[in-house]
Structure formats: structure tokens, C-alpha cells
Amino acid sequence: MKRPLLGIFLGPALIACYAVLPISDAAATKARQDRIDVIETSVDSSGTSRLQFESRCTSQQSGPRYPICIRDDGSVNPLSTYQDLAHRLRNGIDDVDALCAIDTSLVLSLLECPLVIPGSYLAGAPQFAFADLSQLLARNWQRQGSAERADQLYSQAYSLMEDSEFGQDLGRLGILRQWISTKIVLGMNENAKSLARLHTAIARRYYNCDGGLTAVLVQSLQLQAETLRTFGNLAEAQALQNEAKQLSANPESSPRECE
Fold first, then answer.
1. Which of 132, 161, 210, 242 could pair with 167 in a Cys bridge, judged by C-beta atoms 3.0 to 4.6 Å apart?
2. What is the pTM for the complete model shown?
């Protein structure tokens, strides 16, 4: 199903509106319990539970907590905190304690805060926000040398973005691009190649079915080629590179056919 591109740009603004939407106690309780069940039993592709903390955060309960969700009574508006944390993370945070405080808040909020309000036309907005913060936090932990934690957070970000009504193909492509580099750092060669293939598959669907920009598919083909070349898959890498060059020079060489 084709999703509106406005979700990518209006996600934060929609979250602000979301604070005024009503929700029954019973619906909120069920939504939270369903999410707890999913998180507690979910594992990433390497068999690691998604509900984890960075190992350098010695006390999971200490430090400041950030209200990055809407409580059941609607008393917390997350927009200002979400924007502040996203801004700080985009600029880069070097202080490990500050990263730990955000990491802990994010993990606990996934258990404590409603991510989905049944019947709301903004049902996916909180998931979009948490996905955004997860990938930004992952980028910061990787800068600190914690590739393992970055790997877990990219897995979490991708899952949340995929579940969100605002989970655009472009949003997932952005997460995958960074996640691939983390897998390479960790030496997880097959995982990196699998993610690169997924990246290209999403880009092809975006190009063929949603009228996506040619440049997006070209860049994805180049990314997969570079990834495969890194691991010595030279023939397949060259074929992808040739396709990217042909498509870039003549976009009509690849008719848009949505299957």
C-alpha cells in the first residue's frame, strides 16, 4: 500500500496533535501489554533480544528520565522533548552519561508508554518518533565505539519504522544504509549482504510502484555493489554497478513495472 510522503516531513508535528486525542484506560492497558509481549519475545537476526541496555550504562535506573511519550492521562506532550533529544543526537553527544540517560529513557519508554492508540488516524506517530530517536542514538553509540549497541538500536529502529503508519520506504532505506555499515564493522558479513539486498529490494519497489526518484534506486544499487565488493563478490558487484550506470544515464532503460 502506498503511504503518503507527508509522513516523513510531518511526523514531529503530528505527534504534537496526537497529545489531544482521547484514549480509554482499557485500550491503553491492552496496547501496552501487547507491546510488552512483543518486545520481551522479539529477537533480531542474530538472536539478540531487542530489549537491552548499553553495557557501559552501569545503572539502568539512575540519571534523568526524559518524557518522550504520552502518558495514559494525556498529561505529557512529547514534542518539545522529542525535538530537543533529536537535535542533540543529530549534533552528536560525546558524554557517555548523557547517552546512557537517553538510552535508558528510550528503552523504558518502549515498555511504559502507549505507542498505538486504537482508532487514531495518527496511530503510527509515536512509533515514527521512537524509530527516529533509536537510529540517532545508534549513530552516537557507534561513534563511541559501541557497534554492538548500535546494531541493536538499528534493529529496533527498523522494526518500529516498519510498523509505523509513517514508515516510509525512504525512512527504512536511511536506517538500512547505516545498519549495513555497522554490520561491516562487526564483521557480520552475511548480515551486511542480506541488508544490502533488502535495501535494493525496497528501493526497486519504491521506484516501480510509488514513482520514486531514479537517484534513490541508483544509489541503492551502488550501495549493494560496494557492500558485495567489500566481501569479494566482484562479479555480482560489477553487474549491479553496470545497472546503476545504465539507469543513471538512461532512466527509461528500466520500465516501471509494479508487481
1. 161
2. 0.75
